Amino acid sequence: MILPIVAYGDAVLRKKAEDISKDYPKLDELLANMYETMYGAYGVGLAAPQIGLPIRLFLVDTEPFSEDKDFTKEEQEQLKNFKRTFINAKILEETGDEWAFNEGCLSIPDVREDVFRKPKIKIEYQDENFNTHTEEFDGLIARVIQHEYDHIEGILFTDKLSTLKKRLIKSRLANISKGNIDVDYRMRFPSMKKKR
């Protein structure tokens, strides 16, 4: 089932999410719905806070990036085959010289900006079967993970922009939070909650 994606301005996007355990209710159904929601919105990542749940859970599937001709064949192959569920994730390390990449977010439609992030990460997480993994990632895969990880920390990519950039997009962000935007996927706007 495709779930509505929570728009910029909703308080759930600012909460530090909580860990979950194996007995989290209907987790398999939630994961299936989240993947369906992410694909329905043409996303490469989706975090639970983006569907209104303040829990430490996010998904990544970088296959859409594998078509990008700016990447080497090897990078395209990595991106094509990377699909992962991250539960109770904790980034242990971020290393290297920061690099810029133009990021967007399903909760902040039609806003894209260059964001600087470190190229390598080491992360500990549990998969959908609650097996614990510690892995290192780099490049675009690391960046997508960092973006989604920020969501479970209550951070948005717009927080990482310069003061000037923030001022330039302020009215666009206000319009998103009011629902004054056209999107081709289901969204829930903060103003909708107040009307109920």
Give your account of this protein's structure.
This protein has a single domain, classed as Peptide deformylase (Peptide Deformylase, Alpha-Beta Complex). The protein is 30% helix and 29% strand. The chain has helices at residues 27-40, 73-80, 139-152, 163-178, 190-195, and strands spanning 5-6, 45-47, 57-61, 83-95, 99-105, 108-117, 120-126, 132-138, 187-188. It has a 5-stranded antiparallel sheet, sandwiched between helices. Strands 1-9 form a two-stranded parallel sheet.
Secondary structure layout plus pairing:
Layout (H helix, E strand, L loop, with lengths): L4 E2 L20 H14 L4 E3 L9 E5 L11 H8 L2 E13 L3 E7 L2 E10 L2 E7 L5 E7 H14 L10 H16 L8 E2 L1 H6 L1
Parallel strand pairs: 1-9
Antiparallel strand pairs: 2-3, 3-4, 4-7, 5-6, 7-8
